[in-house]
């Protein structure tokens, strides 16, 4: 069973809880917080989640904040993380197929709950195509 890290801030809390419930029984989900609607600083939760994917403790990750930007930027500071900000299903599929993204960032204030679940499902179900894309992915790290 694939292991999934999940984290977000107060703006993403309700979506995080919804996604966790949606993934029950299909994946092993490790919740890095936040655990309430109280205002928090997203890096406090994103860095541990990203580290867990980077070190292989989790296979992939899901991050949620209001715009998706802050969590994505933070996760991408980690050398082995490729976090894609997705607001459409096709973006999630392409991020996996072409970029071998290992984390997805969702903008809770800009997508519906239903769309968030569809994006997560597509992200987790789509495989990296490799081939011509592998050479490009190999050049991403500094």
TrEMBL record:
Molecular function in Gene Ontology: ribose-5-phosphate isomerase activity
Return the EC number: 5.3.1.6
Q: What keywords sit in the KW lines?
A: Isomerase
GO BP terms:
D-allose catabolic process; pentose-phosphate shunt, non-oxidative branch
Looking up Pfam families in the UniProt record yields: LacAB_rpiB
- Top-rank taxon, per record: Bacteria
Q: Which Gene3D superfamilies match?
A: Sugar-phosphate isomerase, RpiB/LacA/LacB (3.40.1400.10)
Its name, as the record gives it, is Ribose 5-phosphate isomerase B
Give the organism, scientific name.
Frigoriflavimonas asaccharolytica
């Amino acid at each position: 069973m694939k292991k999934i890290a999940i984290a977000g801030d107060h703006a993403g809390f309700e979506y995080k809880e919804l996604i966790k419930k949606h993934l029950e029984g299909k994946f092993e989900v490790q919740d890095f917080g936040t655990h309430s609607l109280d205002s928090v600083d997203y890096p406090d939760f994103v860095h541990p989640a990203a580290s867990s994917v980077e070190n292989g403790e989790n296979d992939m990750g899901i991050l949620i904040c209001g715009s998706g930007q802050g969590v994505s930027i933070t996760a991408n500071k980690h050398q082995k993380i490729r976090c894609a900000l997705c607001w459409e299903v096709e973006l999630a599929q392409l991020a996996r197929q072409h970029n071998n993204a290992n984390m997805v960032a969702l903008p809770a204030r800009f997508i519906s709950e239903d769309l968030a679940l569809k994006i997560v499902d597509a992200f987790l179900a789509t495989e990296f195509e490799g081939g011509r894309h592998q050479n490009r992915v190999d050049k991403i790290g500094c």
